[in-house]
Amino acid sequence: MSNYSTNEFRSGLKVMLDGDPCSILDNELVKPGKGQAFNRVKLRNLKTGRVLEKTFKSGEQLEAADVMDTDMQYLYNDGDFWCFMEPDTFEQHQATENAVGDALMWLSEQDTCVVTLFNGVPLSVTPPNHVELEIVETDPGLRGDTAQGGSKPAKLVTGAVVKVPLFLDQGEIIRVDTRTGEYQGRVSAK
Amino acid sequence: MEHINQWQPGTSMAILRQRSRVLSELRNFFQQRQVIEVDVPLLSRATVTDQNIDSIQAHNAETDAYLQTSPEYFMKRLLASGSGDIYSLGKAFREAESGRRHNPEFTLLEWYRCGWDEHQLMDEVAELIAVLLPGIAVRRCSYADVFIQHLQVDPHLVDLADLQSLAVATSSEAWAEETRANCLDLLFSVLIEPQLEDGLVLVYDYPACQAALAKCAEDSQGRQISRRFEGFLNRVELANGYCELTDAAEQADRFAEDQRQRRLSDKAAVTADQRLLAAMESGLPECAGVALGVDRLLMQLQGADSIDQVMPFSWDRC
Protein backbone atom coordinates (compact mmCIF):
# COMPACT_ATOMS: atom_id res chain seq x y z
CA MET A 1 0.00 0.00 0.00
CA SER A 2 1.05 3.59 -0.50
CA ASN A 3 1.90 6.12 2.18
CA TYR A 4 0.24 9.40 3.00
CA SER A 5 2.08 12.47 4.26
CA THR A 6 0.53 14.77 6.92
CA ASN A 7 -0.29 17.36 4.25
CA GLU A 8 -2.50 14.76 2.49
CA PHE A 9 -4.38 13.82 5.67
CA ARG A 10 -8.05 14.55 5.04
CA SER A 11 -11.21 13.64 6.88
CA GLY A 12 -12.21 10.12 5.81
CA LEU A 13 -8.72 8.95 4.80
CA LYS A 14 -7.92 5.44 6.10
CA VAL A 15 -4.43 4.90 7.54
CA MET A 16 -2.57 2.36 9.66
CA LEU A 17 -1.55 3.46 13.16
CA ASP A 18 0.21 1.06 15.55
CA GLY A 19 -1.08 -1.90 13.53
CA ASP A 20 -4.73 -0.86 13.53
CA PRO A 21 -6.74 0.70 10.70
CA CYS A 22 -7.90 4.20 11.53
CA SER A 23 -10.05 6.79 9.83
CA ILE A 24 -8.87 10.41 9.97
CA LEU A 25 -11.51 12.72 11.46
CA ASP A 26 -9.63 16.00 11.62
CA ASN A 27 -6.16 17.33 10.79
CA GLU A 28 -5.02 20.67 12.14
CA LEU A 29 -1.78 22.40 11.22
CA VAL A 30 0.00 23.89 14.23
CA LYS A 31 2.88 26.20 13.42
CA PRO A 32 4.49 28.40 16.04
CA GLY A 33 5.50 31.70 14.41
CA LYS A 34 9.17 30.77 14.56
CA GLY A 35 8.90 27.02 15.08
CA GLN A 36 8.74 23.68 13.33
CA ALA A 37 5.28 22.85 11.96
CA PHE A 38 3.34 19.87 13.24
CA ASN A 39 -0.13 18.41 12.88
CA ARG A 40 -2.72 17.61 15.52
CA VAL A 41 -4.68 14.72 14.06
CA LYS A 42 -7.91 13.16 15.35
CA LEU A 43 -8.42 9.55 14.29
CA ARG A 44 -11.01 6.87 14.90
CA ASN A 45 -9.63 3.39 15.47
CA LEU A 46 -11.86 1.32 13.19
CA LYS A 47 -11.38 -1.82 15.28
CA THR A 48 -12.30 -0.39 18.66
CA GLY A 49 -14.26 2.68 17.57
CA ARG A 50 -12.18 4.78 19.97
CA VAL A 51 -11.25 8.33 18.97
CA LEU A 52 -7.65 9.32 19.66
CA GLU A 53 -5.56 12.43 19.13
CA LYS A 54 -1.97 12.23 17.87
CA THR A 55 0.65 14.84 17.10
CA PHE A 56 2.77 14.30 13.99
CA LYS A 57 5.72 16.26 12.73
CA SER A 58 4.70 17.87 9.44
CA GLY A 59 5.87 15.67 6.60
CA GLU A 60 5.61 12.43 8.61
CA GLN A 61 3.97 9.58 6.73
CA LEU A 62 1.51 6.83 7.58
CA GLU A 63 0.80 3.71 5.57
CA ALA A 64 -2.58 3.62 3.83
CA ALA A 65 -5.02 1.08 5.30
CA ASP A 66 -6.72 -1.38 2.94
CA VAL A 67 -10.18 -0.48 4.18
CA MET A 68 -13.24 -0.46 1.94
CA ASP A 69 -16.89 0.28 2.60
CA THR A 70 -19.12 -2.06 0.57
CA ASP A 71 -22.90 -2.35 0.34
CA MET A 72 -23.91 -5.94 1.20
CA GLN A 73 -27.07 -7.85 1.86
CA TYR A 74 -27.45 -9.54 5.26
CA LEU A 75 -28.31 -13.21 4.66
CA TYR A 76 -28.39 -15.14 7.94
CA ASN A 77 -26.69 -15.91 11.24
CA ASP A 78 -25.40 -19.50 11.59
CA GLY A 79 -24.82 -19.20 15.33
CA ASP A 80 -21.16 -18.20 15.10
CA PHE A 81 -21.02 -15.85 12.14
CA TRP A 82 -23.23 -13.33 10.42
CA CYS A 83 -23.24 -13.89 6.70
CA PHE A 84 -23.32 -10.98 4.19
CA MET A 85 -23.36 -11.06 0.39
CA GLU A 86 -22.11 -8.62 -2.21
CA PRO A 87 -25.13 -8.14 -4.50
CA ASP A 88 -23.09 -7.83 -7.72
CA THR A 89 -20.69 -10.74 -7.35
CA PHE A 90 -22.69 -12.90 -4.91
CA GLU A 91 -19.46 -13.19 -2.93
CA GLN A 92 -20.21 -14.00 0.69
CA HIS A 93 -18.41 -12.70 3.80
CA GLN A 94 -18.59 -13.97 7.38
CA ALA A 95 -18.61 -11.30 10.07
CA THR A 96 -17.84 -12.05 13.72
CA GLU A 97 -20.10 -10.85 16.53
CA ASN A 98 -17.43 -8.29 17.35
CA ALA A 99 -17.54 -6.87 13.81
CA VAL A 100 -21.34 -6.78 13.72
CA GLY A 101 -21.38 -4.97 17.07
CA ASP A 102 -24.43 -2.80 17.76
CA ALA A 103 -25.78 -3.39 14.23
CA LEU A 104 -27.02 -6.67 15.70
CA MET A 105 -29.98 -4.88 17.30
CA TRP A 106 -31.36 -3.74 13.94
CA LEU A 107 -30.55 -6.45 11.40
CA SER A 108 -33.29 -8.25 9.50
CA GLU A 109 -32.50 -10.75 6.79
CA GLN A 110 -32.35 -9.16 3.30
CA ASP A 111 -31.40 -5.71 4.69
CA THR A 112 -28.67 -3.88 2.82
CA CYS A 113 -25.87 -2.76 5.15
CA VAL A 114 -22.49 -1.11 4.74
CA VAL A 115 -19.82 -3.67 5.59
CA THR A 116 -16.36 -2.22 6.16
CA LEU A 117 -13.71 -4.66 4.92
CA PHE A 118 -10.14 -4.51 6.25
CA ASN A 119 -7.74 -6.59 4.18
CA GLY A 120 -10.85 -8.26 2.74
CA VAL A 121 -12.32 -9.27 6.14
CA PRO A 122 -15.42 -7.61 7.69
CA LEU A 123 -14.27 -5.15 10.36
CA SER A 124 -17.56 -3.42 11.12
CA VAL A 125 -21.18 -3.31 9.97
CA THR A 126 -23.33 -0.21 9.65
CA PRO A 127 -27.08 -0.93 9.47
CA PRO A 128 -29.40 1.06 7.16
CA ASN A 129 -30.19 4.50 8.62
CA HIS A 130 -33.86 3.54 8.85
CA VAL A 131 -35.34 0.11 9.47
CA GLU A 132 -38.92 -1.13 9.74
CA LEU A 133 -39.45 -3.66 12.50
CA GLU A 134 -42.33 -5.39 14.25
CA ILE A 135 -43.17 -4.76 17.91
CA VAL A 136 -43.16 -8.12 19.72
CA GLU A 137 -43.69 -6.95 23.28
CA THR A 138 -45.22 -3.80 24.80
CA ASP A 139 -47.97 -2.70 27.19
CA PRO A 140 -51.43 -2.71 25.57
CA GLY A 141 -52.15 0.35 23.44
CA LEU A 142 -54.33 3.16 24.79
CA ARG A 143 -57.04 3.66 22.15
CA GLY A 144 -57.69 7.24 21.11
CA ASP A 145 -54.49 8.46 22.71
CA THR A 146 -52.89 9.49 19.41
CA ALA A 147 -52.48 13.18 20.22
CA GLN A 148 -51.11 13.02 23.75
CA GLY A 149 -47.42 12.91 24.61
CA GLY A 150 -45.93 10.15 26.74
CA SER A 151 -44.14 7.00 25.72
CA LYS A 152 -43.52 3.41 26.74
CA PRO A 153 -40.81 0.86 25.97
CA ALA A 154 -41.41 -1.59 23.12
CA LYS A 155 -39.34 -4.65 22.29
CA LEU A 156 -38.79 -5.23 18.57
CA VAL A 157 -38.41 -8.48 16.70
CA THR A 158 -34.64 -8.03 16.50
CA GLY A 159 -34.36 -7.59 20.28
CA ALA A 160 -33.91 -3.81 20.34
CA VAL A 161 -36.00 -1.84 22.84
CA VAL A 162 -37.19 1.61 21.74
CA LYS A 163 -39.52 4.21 23.20
CA VAL A 164 -42.83 4.40 21.33
CA PRO A 165 -46.05 6.43 21.76
CA LEU A 166 -48.67 4.98 24.10
CA PHE A 167 -51.22 4.11 21.36
CA LEU A 168 -49.06 1.45 19.67
CA ASP A 169 -49.72 -2.25 20.11
CA GLN A 170 -47.92 -5.53 19.81
CA GLY A 171 -47.75 -6.73 16.19
CA GLU A 172 -47.52 -3.26 14.68
CA ILE A 173 -44.59 -2.33 12.45
CA ILE A 174 -42.66 0.85 13.16
CA ARG A 175 -39.90 2.81 11.51
CA VAL A 176 -36.76 3.48 13.61
CA ASP A 177 -33.67 5.63 13.03
CA THR A 178 -30.77 3.27 13.80
CA ARG A 179 -28.30 6.13 14.39
CA THR A 180 -30.28 7.49 17.35
CA GLY A 181 -32.51 4.52 18.21
CA GLU A 182 -35.52 6.83 17.95
CA TYR A 183 -39.05 5.93 16.86
CA GLN A 184 -39.91 7.64 13.56
CA GLY A 185 -43.48 6.55 12.88
CA ARG A 186 -45.99 3.74 12.45
CA VAL A 187 -45.72 1.89 9.14
CA SER A 188 -48.81 -0.29 9.34
CA ALA A 189 -50.66 -2.70 11.53
CA LYS A 190 -49.86 -6.29 10.83
CA MET B 1 -10.78 23.02 -3.83
CA GLU B 2 -12.48 24.53 -6.83
CA HIS B 3 -16.05 24.64 -5.65
CA ILE B 4 -17.95 27.25 -7.56
CA ASN B 5 -20.03 28.12 -4.48
CA GLN B 6 -16.85 29.41 -2.85
CA TRP B 7 -17.19 32.68 -4.78
CA GLN B 8 -18.60 34.13 -1.58
CA PRO B 9 -16.49 35.59 1.25
CA GLY B 10 -15.83 33.61 4.45
CA THR B 11 -16.82 36.60 6.60
CA SER B 12 -20.30 37.77 7.37
CA MET B 13 -20.93 41.41 6.49
CA ALA B 14 -21.03 42.18 10.24
CA ILE B 15 -17.51 40.79 10.70
CA LEU B 16 -16.33 42.62 7.60
CA ARG B 17 -17.53 45.87 9.18
CA GLN B 18 -15.84 44.99 12.46
CA ARG B 19 -12.63 44.22 10.61
CA SER B 20 -12.75 47.69 9.11
CA ARG B 21 -13.36 49.26 12.55
CA VAL B 22 -10.46 47.32 14.09
CA LEU B 23 -8.05 48.36 11.32
CA SER B 24 -8.93 52.01 11.89
CA GLU B 25 -8.70 51.65 15.70
CA LEU B 26 -5.21 50.20 15.32
CA ARG B 27 -4.21 53.15 13.14
CA ASN B 28 -5.74 55.62 15.65
CA PHE B 29 -3.81 54.01 18.48
CA PHE B 30 -0.48 54.68 16.79
CA GLN B 31 -1.44 58.07 15.42
CA GLN B 32 -2.24 59.25 18.97
CA ARG B 33 1.20 58.07 20.03
CA GLN B 34 3.07 59.74 17.18
CA VAL B 35 4.16 56.45 15.65
CA ILE B 36 4.12 56.83 11.87
CA GLU B 37 2.74 54.27 9.41
CA VAL B 38 5.14 52.94 6.78
CA ASP B 39 3.92 50.90 3.82
CA VAL B 40 7.03 48.92 2.97
CA PRO B 41 7.24 46.56 -0.06
CA LEU B 42 5.69 43.11 -0.13
CA LEU B 43 7.95 42.04 -3.00
CA SER B 44 11.70 41.92 -2.49
CA ARG B 45 14.85 40.27 -3.86
CA ALA B 46 15.72 39.11 -0.34
CA THR B 47 13.87 37.18 2.35
CA VAL B 48 14.26 35.47 5.74
CA THR B 49 16.77 32.66 6.27
CA ASP B 50 14.84 31.17 9.26
CA GLN B 51 14.71 27.39 8.78
CA ASN B 52 11.06 27.17 9.88
CA ILE B 53 9.70 29.97 7.68
CA ASP B 54 9.30 29.43 3.95
CA SER B 55 8.77 32.32 1.56
CA ILE B 56 6.55 32.25 -1.51
CA GLN B 57 8.68 32.81 -4.59
CA ALA B 58 7.86 35.31 -7.28
CA HIS B 59 9.57 36.80 -10.32
CA ASN B 60 9.94 40.26 -11.66
CA ALA B 61 11.63 41.04 -14.97
CA GLU B 62 13.66 37.82 -14.80
CA THR B 63 14.78 38.56 -11.25
CA ASP B 64 13.93 36.04 -8.55
CA ALA B 65 11.95 37.64 -5.78
CA TYR B 66 9.99 36.71 -2.65
CA LEU B 67 6.73 37.79 -1.08
CA GLN B 68 7.72 39.07 2.36
CA THR B 69 7.06 36.93 5.43
CA SER B 70 7.11 40.10 7.57
CA PRO B 71 8.00 43.77 7.06
CA GLU B 72 10.89 43.45 9.53
CA TYR B 73 13.92 43.91 7.25
CA PHE B 74 12.53 46.92 5.43
CA MET B 75 11.42 48.50 8.71
CA LYS B 76 14.88 48.02 10.21
CA ARG B 77 16.40 49.68 7.15
CA LEU B 78 14.08 52.64 7.78
CA LEU B 79 15.01 52.69 11.49
CA ALA B 80 18.71 52.69 10.56
CA SER B 81 17.96 55.64 8.27
CA GLY B 82 16.50 57.68 11.15
CA SER B 83 12.74 57.10 10.76
CA GLY B 84 12.06 57.05 14.50
CA ASP B 85 9.07 55.05 15.82
CA ILE B 86 7.22 53.31 12.98
CA TYR B 87 4.44 50.78 12.39
CA SER B 88 3.29 48.73 9.44
CA LEU B 89 -0.22 47.34 9.00
CA GLY B 90 -0.26 45.15 5.93
CA LYS B 91 -0.04 41.70 4.41
CA ALA B 92 2.59 39.04 4.98
CA PHE B 93 2.97 35.68 3.24
CA ARG B 94 4.14 32.25 4.38
CA GLU B 95 4.36 29.29 2.07
CA ALA B 96 2.00 26.37 2.70
CA GLU B 97 0.60 27.63 6.01
CA SER B 98 -3.10 26.79 5.87
CA GLY B 99 -5.35 25.72 8.70
CA ARG B 100 -7.84 26.93 11.26
CA ARG B 101 -5.38 29.53 12.54
CA HIS B 102 -3.23 29.91 9.44
CA ASN B 103 -3.60 31.38 6.00
CA PRO B 104 -0.68 31.74 3.56
CA GLU B 105 -1.55 35.45 3.20
CA PHE B 106 -2.42 37.23 6.42
CA THR B 107 -2.55 40.68 7.98
CA LEU B 108 0.31 41.61 10.26
CA LEU B 109 0.72 44.61 12.52
CA GLU B 110 4.37 45.28 13.31
CA TRP B 111 5.86 48.21 15.20
CA TYR B 112 9.17 49.47 16.57
CA ARG B 113 9.90 51.74 19.50
CA CYS B 114 13.31 53.43 19.59
CA GLY B 115 15.11 53.43 22.94
CA TRP B 116 12.58 50.99 24.48
CA ASP B 117 13.23 47.53 25.86
CA GLU B 118 10.97 44.47 25.52
CA HIS B 119 9.24 45.09 28.87
CA GLN B 120 8.14 48.59 27.88
CA LEU B 121 6.89 47.15 24.59
CA MET B 122 4.95 44.41 26.44
CA ASP B 123 3.18 47.22 28.34
CA GLU B 124 2.20 48.78 25.05
CA VAL B 125 0.95 45.46 23.63
CA ALA B 126 -1.28 45.13 26.71
CA GLU B 127 -2.53 48.71 26.26
CA LEU B 128 -3.33 48.07 22.61
CA ILE B 129 -5.26 44.86 23.37
CA ALA B 130 -7.14 46.66 26.18
CA VAL B 131 -8.40 49.25 23.67
CA LEU B 132 -10.15 46.46 21.77
CA LEU B 133 -10.96 44.26 24.78
CA PRO B 134 -11.47 46.64 27.72
CA GLY B 135 -10.77 45.10 31.12
CA ILE B 136 -8.92 42.10 29.73
CA ALA B 137 -6.82 40.15 32.25
CA VAL B 138 -3.07 40.44 31.62
CA ARG B 139 -0.51 38.06 33.09
CA ARG B 140 3.24 38.12 32.63
CA CYS B 141 5.61 35.27 33.31
CA SER B 142 9.01 34.12 32.21
CA TYR B 143 9.35 31.20 29.81
CA ALA B 144 11.24 29.24 32.46
CA ASP B 145 8.54 29.79 35.11
CA VAL B 146 5.67 28.70 32.89
CA PHE B 147 7.66 25.73 31.56
CA ILE B 148 8.59 24.53 35.05
CA GLN B 149 5.03 25.12 36.29
CA HIS B 150 3.60 22.76 33.66
CA LEU B 151 6.40 20.30 32.90
CA GLN B 152 8.65 20.44 35.99
CA VAL B 153 11.66 20.88 33.69
CA ASP B 154 13.99 23.88 33.40
CA PRO B 155 13.95 24.66 29.65
CA HIS B 156 17.30 26.46 29.78
CA LEU B 157 19.22 23.75 31.61
CA VAL B 158 17.62 20.44 30.56
CA ASP B 159 19.79 18.09 28.44
CA LEU B 160 18.97 17.87 24.75
CA ALA B 161 18.54 14.08 25.03
CA ASP B 162 15.91 14.50 27.77
CA LEU B 163 14.07 17.10 25.69
CA GLN B 164 14.09 14.76 22.71
CA SER B 165 12.63 11.91 24.80
CA LEU B 166 9.88 14.23 26.02
CA ALA B 167 9.17 15.26 22.42
CA VAL B 168 9.08 11.62 21.26
CA ALA B 169 6.65 10.76 24.07
CA THR B 170 4.47 13.75 23.13
CA SER B 171 4.50 13.11 19.39
CA SER B 172 6.50 10.41 17.62
CA GLU B 173 9.93 8.95 16.88
CA ALA B 174 10.36 11.65 14.24
CA TRP B 175 11.52 14.01 17.01
CA ALA B 176 14.36 11.79 18.28
CA GLU B 177 17.04 13.81 16.47
CA GLU B 178 15.37 17.21 16.53
CA THR B 179 17.04 20.43 17.58
CA ARG B 180 16.61 21.91 21.03
CA ALA B 181 14.56 24.81 19.65
CA ASN B 182 12.14 22.57 17.75
CA CYS B 183 11.64 20.20 20.70
CA LEU B 184 10.94 23.15 23.01
CA ASP B 185 8.42 24.56 20.52
CA LEU B 186 6.59 21.23 20.28
CA LEU B 187 6.37 20.84 24.05
CA PHE B 188 5.31 24.44 24.57
CA SER B 189 2.65 24.31 21.83
CA VAL B 190 1.15 20.93 22.73
CA LEU B 191 1.51 20.75 26.50
CA ILE B 192 1.61 24.34 27.74
CA GLU B 193 -0.27 26.65 25.35
CA PRO B 194 -3.64 24.87 25.84
CA GLN B 195 -3.20 25.24 29.64
CA LEU B 196 -2.56 29.01 29.67
CA GLU B 197 -5.03 31.30 31.42
CA ASP B 198 -7.83 33.28 29.77
CA GLY B 199 -6.88 36.78 28.68
CA LEU B 200 -3.51 38.05 27.53
CA VAL B 201 -0.48 36.08 28.71
CA LEU B 202 2.91 37.65 27.98
CA VAL B 203 5.77 35.15 28.15
CA TYR B 204 9.29 36.64 28.17
CA ASP B 205 12.95 35.54 28.39
CA TYR B 206 12.76 32.85 25.70
CA PRO B 207 15.53 30.24 25.48
CA ALA B 208 18.73 31.50 23.86
CA CYS B 209 18.36 28.89 21.08
CA GLN B 210 15.10 30.61 20.05
CA ALA B 211 16.53 34.12 19.91
CA ALA B 212 15.73 34.66 16.21
CA LEU B 213 16.48 38.41 15.92
CA ALA B 214 16.48 39.26 19.63
CA LYS B 215 19.43 40.21 21.81
CA CYS B 216 20.76 37.47 24.07
CA ALA B 217 21.46 38.00 27.77
CA GLU B 218 21.70 36.27 31.14
CA ASP B 219 18.66 36.18 33.39
CA SER B 220 18.76 36.91 37.15
CA GLN B 221 19.74 33.27 37.79
CA GLY B 222 22.62 33.36 35.32
CA ARG B 223 20.85 31.31 32.61
CA GLN B 224 21.36 32.21 28.94
CA ILE B 225 18.13 33.64 27.58
CA SER B 226 17.00 35.70 24.62
CA ARG B 227 15.22 39.01 25.11
CA ARG B 228 12.22 37.78 23.18
CA PHE B 229 8.57 37.64 24.25
CA GLU B 230 5.35 36.21 22.94
CA GLY B 231 1.76 37.25 23.61
CA PHE B 232 -0.97 34.61 23.84
CA LEU B 233 -4.59 35.75 23.73
CA ASN B 234 -6.93 33.11 25.18
CA ARG B 235 -4.29 30.43 24.48
CA VAL B 236 -3.67 31.49 20.88
CA GLU B 237 -0.23 32.73 19.82
CA LEU B 238 -0.83 36.33 18.82
CA ALA B 239 2.36 38.40 19.02
CA ASN B 240 6.13 37.94 18.96
CA GLY B 241 8.52 40.68 20.05
CA TYR B 242 12.19 41.37 20.65
CA CYS B 243 14.62 43.70 22.21
CA GLU B 244 16.19 43.91 18.78
CA LEU B 245 19.64 42.64 17.99
CA THR B 246 21.62 45.63 16.71
CA ASP B 247 25.07 44.03 16.28
CA ALA B 248 25.66 43.47 12.55
CA ALA B 249 28.41 40.89 13.04
CA GLU B 250 26.25 38.76 15.32
CA GLN B 251 23.35 39.11 12.87
CA ALA B 252 25.63 37.82 10.07
CA ASP B 253 26.58 34.84 12.27
CA ARG B 254 22.92 34.05 12.93
CA PHE B 255 22.12 34.18 9.22
CA ALA B 256 25.01 31.76 8.59
CA GLU B 257 23.68 29.42 11.30
CA ASP B 258 20.17 29.58 9.76
CA GLN B 259 21.65 28.65 6.41
CA ARG B 260 23.52 25.73 7.94
CA GLN B 261 20.26 24.49 9.52
CA ARG B 262 18.45 24.85 6.19
CA ARG B 263 21.12 22.71 4.50
CA LEU B 264 20.83 20.06 7.23
CA SER B 265 17.07 19.81 6.74
CA ASP B 266 17.32 19.82 2.91
CA LYS B 267 15.57 23.15 2.57
CA ALA B 268 16.09 25.52 -0.33
CA ALA B 269 19.10 27.79 0.20
CA VAL B 270 18.31 31.44 0.89
CA THR B 271 20.82 34.25 0.51
CA ALA B 272 21.16 36.49 3.56
CA ASP B 273 19.80 40.00 3.06
CA GLN B 274 22.97 42.03 2.50
CA ARG B 275 21.10 45.33 2.54
CA LEU B 276 19.80 44.61 6.05
CA LEU B 277 23.34 43.76 7.19
CA ALA B 278 24.66 46.96 5.62
CA ALA B 279 21.94 48.95 7.40
CA MET B 280 22.88 47.34 10.72
CA GLU B 281 26.54 48.09 10.11
CA SER B 282 25.71 51.72 9.54
CA GLY B 283 23.80 51.65 12.85
CA LEU B 284 20.39 50.28 13.89
CA PRO B 285 19.22 52.34 16.87
CA GLU B 286 18.55 50.46 20.12
CA CYS B 287 14.88 49.51 19.86
CA ALA B 288 12.18 46.96 20.62
CA GLY B 289 9.80 45.62 17.99
CA VAL B 290 6.78 43.32 17.88
CA ALA B 291 4.59 41.68 15.24
CA LEU B 292 0.94 40.89 15.94
CA GLY B 293 -1.45 38.76 13.86
CA VAL B 294 -4.50 40.89 13.12
CA ASP B 295 -6.65 38.04 11.77
CA ARG B 296 -6.11 36.04 14.94
CA LEU B 297 -6.95 39.12 17.00
CA LEU B 298 -10.24 39.37 15.08
CA MET B 299 -10.88 35.67 15.67
CA GLN B 300 -10.64 36.32 19.41
CA LEU B 301 -12.83 39.43 19.25
CA GLN B 302 -15.46 37.43 17.37
CA GLY B 303 -15.07 34.11 19.13
CA ALA B 304 -14.47 32.64 15.65
CA ASP B 305 -12.86 29.20 15.54
CA SER B 306 -11.57 29.51 11.98
CA ILE B 307 -9.49 32.25 10.35
CA ASP B 308 -11.71 31.83 7.28
CA GLN B 309 -14.57 33.47 9.23
CA VAL B 310 -12.70 36.75 9.72
CA MET B 311 -11.01 37.21 6.31
CA PRO B 312 -12.80 38.38 3.19
CA PHE B 313 -11.29 35.49 1.23
CA SER B 314 -9.05 32.83 2.75
CA TRP B 315 -6.82 30.76 0.45
CA ASP B 316 -9.50 28.10 -0.26
CA ARG B 317 -11.67 30.85 -1.74
CA CYS B 318 -8.92 32.50 -3.78
Task: Describe it.
- The complex is a heterodimer of chains A (190) and B (318).
- Chain A has one helix and 16 strands.
- Chain A is mainly β and 190 residues long.
- Chain A has three domains: 3-63, SH3 type barrels, CATH 2.30.30; 67-126, OB fold (Dihydrolipoamide Acetyltransferase, E2P); 130-186, Beta Barrel (OB fold (Dihydrolipoamide Acetyltransferase, E2P)).
- In chain A, strands 9-8-7-10-11 form a five-stranded antiparallel beta sheet. A five-stranded antiparallel beta sheet of chain A has the order 14-13-12-15-16, with no helix packed on it. A four-stranded antiparallel beta sheet of chain A has the order 2-3-4-5, with no helix packed on it.
- The longest helix of chain A is centred in the middle third of the chain and has 4 residues, at 97-100.
- Chain B has 318 residues and is α+β, with helices and mostly antiparallel strands.
- Chain B has a single domain, classed as BirA Bifunctional Protein, domain 2 (2-Layer Sandwich).
- Chain B is 36% helix and 23% strand.
- Chain B has helices spanning 13-32, 72-80, 118-132, 143-151, 160-170, 180-192, 248-264, 274-283, 294-302, and strands at residues 36-37, 43-44, 57-60, 63-67, 86-93, 105-114, 138-142, 200-207, 216-218, 224-233, 236-243, 287-293.
- In chain B, the strands form two sheets. In chain B, strands 1, 5, 6, 7, 8, 9, 10, 11 and 12 form a nine-stranded mixed beta sheet that branches. In chain B, strands 2-4-3 form a three-stranded antiparallel beta sheet, with no helix packed on it.
- In chain B, helix 2 (72-80) packs parallel to helix 8 (274-283), helix 5 (160-170) packs across helix 6 and helix 7 packs antiparallel against helix 8.
- The longest helix of chain B is centred in the first third of the chain and has 20 residues, at 13-32.
- The radius of gyration of chain B is 20 Å and the shape is globular.
- The model of chain B has no long low-confidence stretch (mean pLDDT 96).
- The interface between A and B is medium-sized, with 18 and 29 residues.
